[in-house]
């Protein structure tokens, strides 16, 4: 029997269940974490209703950026001292990067923090955006804005583990290839966390 399609209410309920934080080190427990403080960051995981289904809005980062150039990512970035909260930082970054009005976002909930190998602790928030949203991206930060079916990226059958050499060591990481888009690393790991939540009893 097919599983019912995900809807915003179901996702909101799933985000209310307890779960463990995630990390870029999850698949590499033998790799030593550098002894340095983590910088706070926030991302928005934007969902949009397309008929009976939900799509996920993603960006491809500009090639000139210092961190993760050219990679597929959620809208987001470092928390600023002027941000009232981690959520405010995520909404501000989404406004700056893809032109999303913070007032138009229905926040469904949050995932637990994610630690990256680039020394950030990321607070991920899931939000429903209006169906008529049309992105206006900042070309200095975002090369492309696109959508993928949420059910595809949350399906465990589409989650892969890949490896590559980084800083002289083999590192394993999650990846979710979708057409020409290679979703991997922290973005794929946070999507795994969201998928795990939606499948929890």
Structural summary, described in words:
The protein has 201 residues and is an alpha+beta fold. The protein has a domain at 8-24 and 37-151: Nucleoside Triphosphate Pyrophosphohydrolase. 19% of the residues lie in helices and 37% in strands. It is built from four helices and twelve strands. The chain has helices spanning 8-14, 86-98, 150-154, 186-199, and strands at residues 22-23, 39-50, 53-61, 72-73, 76-78, 106-110, 114-115, 120-129, 142-149, 160-166, 169-178, 181-184. Strands 1, 2, 3, 4, 5, 6, 7, 8 and 9 form a nine-stranded mixed sheet that branches. A three-stranded antiparallel sheet has the order 10-11-12. Strand 2 (39-50) and strand 3 form a beta hairpin. Helix 1 packs across helix 4. The model has no long low-confidence stretch (mean pLDDT 92).
In short:
The protein has 201 residues and is an alpha+beta fold. It is built from four helices and twelve strands.
């Amino acid at each position: 029997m097919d599983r019912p399609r995900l809807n915003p209410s179901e996702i909101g309920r799933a985000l209310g269940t307890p779960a463990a934080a995630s990390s870029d080190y999850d698949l590499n427990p033998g790799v030593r974490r550098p002894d340095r403080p983590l910088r706070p960051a926030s991302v928005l995981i934007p969902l949009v209703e397309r008929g009976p289904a939900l799509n996920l809005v993603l960006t491809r980062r500009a090639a000139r950026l210092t961190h993760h150039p050219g990679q597929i990512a959620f809208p987001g970035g470092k928390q600023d001292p002027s941000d009232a909260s981690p959520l405010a930082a995520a909404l501000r970054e989404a406004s700056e990067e893809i032109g999303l009005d913070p007032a138009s976002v229905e926040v469904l909930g949050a995932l637990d923090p994610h630690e990256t190998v680039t020394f950030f602790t990321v607070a991920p928030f899931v939000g429903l955006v209006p169906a008529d949203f049309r992105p206006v991206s900042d070309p200095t930060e975002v090369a492309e804005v696109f959508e993928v079916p949420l059910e595809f990226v949350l399906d465990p059958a589409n989650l892969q583990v890949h490896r590559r050499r980084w800083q002289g060591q083999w590192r394993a990481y999650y990846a979710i290839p979708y057409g020409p888009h290679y979703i991997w690393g922290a973005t794929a790991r946070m999507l795994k966390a969201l998928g795990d939540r939606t499948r929890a009893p």
